[in-house]
Structures are given as structure tokens and as C-alpha cells.
Specification:
This protein has about 650 residues and is an alpha+beta fold. The chain contains 7 helices and 41 strands. The strands form 9 sheets. Strands 1, 2, 3, 4, 5, 6, 7, 8, 9, 10, 11 and 14 form a 12-stranded mixed β-sheet that branches. It has a 5-stranded mixed β-sheet with strand order 16-15-18-13-21, covered by helices on one side. The chain has a 4-stranded antiparallel β-sheet with strand order 23-22-41-40, with no helix packed on it. Helix 5 (about 340-355) packs across helix 7 (about 400-415). The chain starts with a strand and ends with a strand.
Length: about 650
């Protein structure tokens, strides 16, 4: 018996407790004396079914029983009570076999459930989706298909409602029996010491965790501290990206759980993702149970700056810039409660309103090609896991209701209207207080910075869909209102022709439609540059008075000094992929360079090159959105922030 990623626990040698292939259920529990009361009842039981070479242990069938297309069954194994189960294997490759599980709960053995695999590129441990249940004490695994070669280090993780970070692994019948005896003894000793709970105590034990009160359109959310997010600091430091879409999920397993059990299920999923899979944290940003309780998932989700979202681990290739929300339960064959759909709409609308997202527009993501959507199809702002991966998630019922969910989100975002926002502007890129502050727009609006009249002073414009309010000064009255483009366009600001006035360009995939005046009508120039998923920056990189594009791929920047396609004129690497990047002329030499932001710290680089920052300063609050402009017309860009009320 070994322990993955934690302490080593040596089992006893109780023999004969597990009979492989027996017609009757194999008993893991054995009578006899046990260890002193402790945390053993909270340890995660792990049954190892194959060794490092893929050979079955004596908890699984023998090699002689294997043949292509056959099933590999474990016995019906008794186990310590668990709320979440998951299956892992060595390496990040998806196995050929289809993995199914069934469990024994209070109503007997469930039917078989095929588990979707969740493979993350480059990971050392592959795994299935988590299987949730409102308390089970038996498990059985089946593998169908394949060529008879089993995955290496195949394990079943059985996670109790209040797990420690210990994963105690059994790979033999005696070890499995000792593991369950040890857990049962610990649980009995703890219960004896505590005494039986009264009905009143049991009722009082139903959810008493902290809940964040709803404010400004936000639903009530149980924060990580409220459900007990772990026994140690998450090893996966959150990165934040501009929120563009929401991905809808469900968990596998049973819908037969109580409201009081939901927090334990969330803790189990947390352990499975963070420890069993080795991710360091839970993958979802939010989880919703069938009773309408909403739980914060990924660290940093509630603390994310406005308009940004902590990167999760829920949809391969689509984790940055999306909100992953998972319904606890399986809604493949049964209807999800209306309350579940309402809560999801509330959560998504809340975050979309803060990000100023136009719900009816395309997200900018495209399907890689699944059985649900063809490759290259534009994805809406709310889409399902099955739209981007080979999975049945989020179940047929929820999937069929996503168009209605999108409508509900759009209605709620419109009703919220967003919170009022204030800009705080500092004339130099240094720490200190703001030189100028004033209200501008609401959270559902997009703010754009530019010199709209050519007087050398940058001001803040408001975009609301395809309607733009431009201001020639820092006052409260717009100098012009223009309708241009489509509501879902990705809009860029720059002086494209060198006349000293900033205008707009809209990006649609790889195409850039450039306009040299603040007016409607067709674009003055259309160019094709870069890739669809590039992050685009605008600046006067060579000091010729004209703004052009640069594309960012991770921490590599491809700079173009002319408004044309073709190869980049300059390529350099700077900062981290997760950095927020700002563009400005920080030293007044007429050339724009980049600054990266981490929290409220800004790292200014006065060259288009790697290396150390020329200066570092702090400004604003971590939740503020950043603005850059020459607020006083002195030829040097300053810093600013947008803060929601």
C-alpha cells in the first residue's frame, strides 16, 4: 500500500478479504482491532487495478481473461463511504477503452455509467470526469473495447466528503481489506468519542457555510472558504484572461444527494482535480447543485478583476477567457430543475454584465469539430462542453436548453444595465494618486481611449454595442455620437494614417476593417494579418506617427510597422503568457512599447525587447481595469484605471 503525493502508509496483511471473480460481493471490511482514532476515515481510498506496465493487479481480472473487445470487471467491491469517484491512469493519452462505473448507494447498485475522459495536454496523469453520488459504499469498474492492453497505473479514487490530502493506495486484496478496516475503525472510534447526533443536531448541520450576499445583480455564492476549499494553499496560481464566453458542464453520477451533501461533493471534486489529477485546484469556476446553491470553484474566480476570469481546467483548448460552470448531477436522461437553469443564467449574466459582453454576438471561439458541431463553426457566448470536445457533457437535457439559457442571460444582462464606472487618471506612469477622476459609462459599456480631435490629449469614449459616444475633453458631454459596424465586432483604436487623430478599426477573425474618420460607412482599408486567436495590440512601434498592429502569441510579440499583411518586422519575447499587456509611449520618445501588469504592479519596458523592466510601480486596485493615454497632452502616456461602483 502506498500513498500518491502524500505520506506513506503501510497496511497490515489481513488475508482472504478479497476474492477476485467471486460471484458474491468481495468484502473489503475485516473485523478486529484497529488504530487509534484519527484522520484515517477522511483519507482517500485508491484501488490500483494495473501496475506501471499495465499488468492487472489482483484487484482486477488476470491477463488470461483479456481479449480485444472484452470487458474487464472488478468484483463488486465494498468500500468506505465516498461522495466522489474518479478513474486515473499514467500519462496524458486518452485510452482506447471505454470506462464505465457503477456504485452501491442506499438504494442498491446503480446502472452502469460510461465516464467521459478529461485529457489535458502535457499532463502526467490522465483521468475521467468526476462521478458524484450522495454517499456510496461499493464500487465496480468495467472497461469495454480496446486491444487488450490496459492503461498503465489504472486507479479508482474513492473520495469521502471531508477528505484530507492523503491518497492511500491498495493494489492487493490484503491491502484493500486493511485499508477499509483501518478507515472503518477510525470512523467508529470518532463516532464513539463524539456520541450520536440528535435529530436537531443533524438538522442544524445542514448548510451553515458562509454565503456571499447578492449585490448589484450577483447571485448568492458560497465562496471557497464557505465550503472548505482544501487543507493547503492551491498549487495552481490563477491566471486571468478577458472574459469572452461561458462553457456549460455537468458532472457524471447520481442526482440523489441532499442539499447538505453538496458542499462535501464540491470538496470531493476539488480533491480529485487538485490531488488525484495533480492540477493543484478545482477546474470549474462555478458549480451549481439541484437545489440552486452556487459554489465558487477555481481560486480567484470571485476575486477576478472586472471583465476578467481566472483560467480554469474544464474544456481543453478553451480554458482561457471562458467561465466554466458545472451542474452537479447527470442530466442525460432526466430534466434538470428549472432552478438550476435560472441560477446558471444569473451567474453568467452577472459576470457578462461586468465584462460588458454583448450576449447576442459571437464569442470569437470556433469549434474544433465534434459530433455536436462541425469544425470551424463560430460559437456563441454560451456553449456546451460537447461543442468543443468528445464528450456528452452537459447531458442531452441541458444541451437542448442552452439556446433558452442564452436568451435568459441576454435578458438579464439588459436588465442589469451594468454598474456605474469611474475613471481615475494619472498623468505619468508611476505610483501615486490620480490627477483626474470622473464618471464614465457603466459596467456593461466598453471604454475606448483615443485622441479623437487631434489636439494631443487622449480622452475616454463609451461604446455601447455599435453606438459610440466620443468626448473631446474630460467633460460629461459627448462631442459626437456615431453608429458603426456590428455590435459584436472586436474594436481597435489607432491613428492609422498619421493625421494625429485616432479612429476605429474592427477585427473579424484575421480581417481588419480600418476607418480613417469617426463616421459610418464602409472601411477605408481591409487587411489580413496573423491568426484568428491572436491577441492584438496597437501602437506606433517605429515613431513614424502611424499606428499599426502587433500580435501576441503567449509571451512572444510579432510587430508590424505597416498596415499590411505578410511577415512581422520585429519579433521579441517579454513577460509571461498570463500578463495583462498595455501599450504606451512611456518616455516621450515618440515610440510605443509595452508594459505588463500583474495585480496592481506595472512593469514598464521602454524597448521592444526582452530583459528587465525599466521601471516598476503600483497603481489602483487589483480589481481595476487599466487604461493608458496622454491625459494632459505633454507627449508622455500616463496610467489610468476604471473602477466599477
Amino acid at each position: 500500500m502506498t500513498s500518491r503525493g502524500a505520506r506513506l502508509v503501510v497496511a497490515g496483511t489481513a488475508a482472504g478479504a478479497l476474492i477476485v471473480g467471486a460471484a458474491a460481493p468481495a468484502a473489503l471490511a475485516a473485523p478486529g482491532g484497529g488504530p487509534a482514532p484519527g484522520d484515517a476515515a477522511r483519507d482517500v481510498a485508491v484501488l490500483q487495478l494495473t501496475d506501471d506496465d499495465g499488468r492487472p493487479t489482483d484487484l482486477a481480472r488476470t491477463v488470461a481473461d483479456l481479449r480485444a473487445g472484452s470487458s474487464v470487471l472488478t468484483p463488486e467491491l465494498e468500500a468506505p463511504e465516498f461522495y466522489v469517484a474518479g478513474v486515473t491512469w499514467a500519462g496524458g493519452q486518452e485510452p482506447d477503452e471505454r470506462i464505465s462505473i457503477r456504485v452501491r448507494s442506499g438504494e442498491g447498485w446503480t446502472s452502469w455509467t460510461e465516464l467521459d475522459t478529461e485529457v489535458v495536454d502535457g499532463e502526467d496523469v490522465g483521468g475521467t470526469e468526476p462521478y458524484v453520488v450522495g454517499g456510496a459504499t461499493g464500487v465496480q469498474l468495467r472497461l469495454d473495447g480496446g486491444d487488450g492492453t490496459l492503461p498503465q497505473d489504472l486507479r479508482v479514487h474513492l473520495i469521502p466528503p471531508e477528505p484530507t490530502d492523503e491518497e492511500v493506495v491498495a493494489d492487493s486484496a490484503p491491502a484493500a481489506a486493511e485499508l477499509t478496516r483501518r478507515v472503518a475503525s477510525s470512523a467508529t472510534a470518532t463516532a464513539t468519542a463524539s456520541g450520536p447526533a440528535s435529530a436537531a443536531q443533524t438538522e442544524a448541520a445542514a448548510p451553515t457555510f458562509g454565503v456571499l450576499a447578492a449585490t448589484a445583480g450577483a447571485p448568492s455564492v458560497v465562496p471557497r472558504s464557505g465550503w472548505g476549499a482544501g487543507y493547503s494553499t492551491p498549487a495552481w496560481t490563477p491566471d486571468f484572461y478577458e472574459l469572452r464566453a461561458a462553457v456549460v458542464h455537468h458532472t457524471a453520477g447520481s442526482n440523489d444527494y441532499t442539499a447538505a451533501q453538496s458542499a462535501g461533493i464540491v470538496r470531493g471534486i476539488y480533491h480529485y482535480h487538485s490531488t488525484s489529477r495533480g492540477w493543484g485546484d478545482i477546474g470549474y469556476n462555478f458549480l451549481v447543485d439541484k437545489y440552486g446553491q452556487v459554489f465558487e470553484g477555481r481560486n480567484g474566480t470571485l476575486a477576478a478583476p472586472y471583465g476578467l476570469m481566472a483560467e480554469g481546467g474544464h474544456a481543453r483548448g478553451f480554458n482561457d477567457g471562458t467561465l466554466g460552470i458545472s451542474v452537479i448531477g447527470d442530466y442525460t436522461r432526466v430534466r434538470a430543475p428549472d432552478l438550476v437553469m435560472t441560477r446558471m443564467a444569473e451567474v453568467i449574466a452577472w459576470k457578462f454584465a461586468d465584462a460588458g459582453i454583448e450576449v447576442r454576438t459571437a464569442s470569437g471561439y470556433r469549434s474544433p469539430g465534434t459530433y455536436a458541431r462541425p469544425a470551424g463553426q463560430q460559437l456563441p457566448r454560451v456553449f456546451a462542453h460537447r461543442d468543443v470536445d468528445a464528450t456528452t457533457c452537459p447531458g442531452d437535457d441541458i444541451y437542448a436548453r442552452i439556446p433558452a439559457l442564452l436568451d435568459d442571460v441576454a435578458r438579464r444582462v439588459s436588465a442589469l444595465g451594468g454598474r456605474p464606472s469611474t475613471v481615475h487618471l494619472r498623468n505619468v506612469a508611476t505610483g501615486g494618486g490620480a490627477d483626474l477622476s470622473y464618471p464614465r459609462g457603466r459596467s456593461a459599456d466598453t471604454l475606448l481611449v483615443g485622441d479623437w480631435d487631434g489636439d494631443g490629449v487622449d480622452t475616454v469614449a463609451v461604446r455601447r454595442g455599435s453606438r459610440y459616444e466620443f468626448y473631446d475633453d474630460h467633460g460629461s458631454t459627448p462631442s459626437s455620437v456615431v453608429v458603426y459596424g456590428r455590435a459584436g465586432d472586436d474594436v481597435l483604436v489607432g491613428d492609422w494614417n498619421g493625421d494625429g487623430k485616432d479612429t476605429l478599426a474592427v477585427r473579424r477573425g484575421r480581417e481588419y476593417h480600418v476607418k480613417n474618420s469617426l463616421s459610418g460607412g464602409p472601411a477605408d482599408q481591409v487587411i489580413v494579418y496573423g491568426r484568428e486567436r491572436d491577441r492584438v495590440l496597437v501602437g506606433d512601434w517605429n515613431g513614424d506617427g502611424k499606428d499599426t498592429f502587433a500580435v501576441r502569441r503567449y509571451s512572444v510579440y510579432h510587430v508590424k510597422n505597416s498596415m499590411s499583411g505578410g511577415e512581422a518586422d520585429h519579433v521579441f519575447r517579454y513577460g509571461r503568457d498570463s500578463d495583462l499587456v498595455l501599450v504606451g509611449d512611456w518616455d516621450g520618445d515618440g515610440k510605443d512599447t509595452i508594459t505588463v501588469r500583474r495585480g496592481r504592479s506595472y512593469y514598464v519596458n521602454n524597448r521592444l525587447a526582452g530583459g528587465e523592466a525599466n521601471s516598476v510601480f503600483e497603481f489602483g486596485r487589483p480589481a481595476d481595469a487599466s487604461l493608458v493615454g496622454d491625459w494632459d497632452g505633454d507627449g508622455v502616456d500616463g496610467i489610468g484605471v476604471r473602477r466599477l461602483g
